[in-house]
Amino acid sequence: MKIxxxxxxxxxxxxxxxxxxxxxxxxTEIPVxxxxxGDSPETIQxxxxxxxxxxxxxxxxxxxxxLNGQLNGYQPDLVFNxxxxxxxxxxxSFVPMxxxxxxxxxxxxxxxxxxxxxxxxxxxxxxxxxxxxNAPFRxxxxxxxxxxxxxxFPAIVxxxxxxxxxxxxxxxxxxxxxxANARIWEKIEKYQQPVILExxxxxxxxxxxxxxxxxxxxxxxxxxxxxxxxxxxxxxIYSYEAKWVWDTPENPLExxxxxxxxxxxxxxKIEKVACDTYKVLQIRxxxxxxxxxxETGIPNILELNPLPGILPNPEDNSCFPKAARTxxxxxxxxxxxxxxxxxxxxxxxx
Length: 350
What we know:
Number of domains: 3
Strand content: 15-25%
Shape: globular
Number of strands: 13
Low-confidence stretches: none
Largest sheet: 6 strands, antiparallel
Helix content: 25-40%
CATH architecture of the largest domain: 2-Layer Sandwich
Order of helices and strands: EHHEHEHHHEEEHEEEEHEHEEHH
Number of helices: 11
């Protein structure tokens, strides 16, 4: 099979950022977390080699303004989509929209699902409609005054449409109205998008890798996130610092446990809410779903990652590969399983 791996590299996102600004911006003026979702050359090559190991012909293509021509020139049987983009609620939908325009099969969820899942507020509204537990929240936009009357603290402030812990720092947890006001306006100005304020849930946190379609949906071993290994003054959240600063390949944090130490009943409750969410949001092929318990032990959905991080090295603590390894899949086996899910969905033989 001819596969085009379509990605957003860190260098590619930097070029997009500078192009949008219309000038060459010094590195010191660029937010430290702005390109967190971009893929490194090592990750891109690891994915290509993994797909090639199963006999596929693979080419890597940056998801930039040249994508249309390169896809038409290569004419792949399938696009393996990991492209995140940089700006707007539809940045993760860019590649699937092009694939659908040119009738090219692709891995993962469709443009609508990707855009909804990227926007935390729209996701939570849908989950609330279907009575899937998630924390109380409010959304704030630049055009409107902030009203925090009767909101329960502590809370956490997040940009509404970011992933990979972008915009979520240790100081994103706020204890009162004054802190919340300051943090909300700070993030609106920095990320140029609405901000969500969410009640801070104090229970244990888990991340759940789910893959498959229809009646073949499978939950991989659940990953527990253990915050006791964070620095002493750190809030128990998987912040940008926890993901990208404090946790390094040289000095990895002992922050994950897979499989999670759960009773059968606890495991079933988390699996059910994850599967219900997967179905409600019409996820395809694969997704990582973040879950946190409330004070009564009920699993609440934090967010969905239908383009899950897939760093290849175990010491990088990437959770979907971690869950897959625990289930018996090596890196190549995991990625090619996603190819199988997509191919079967399209009625393709591989």
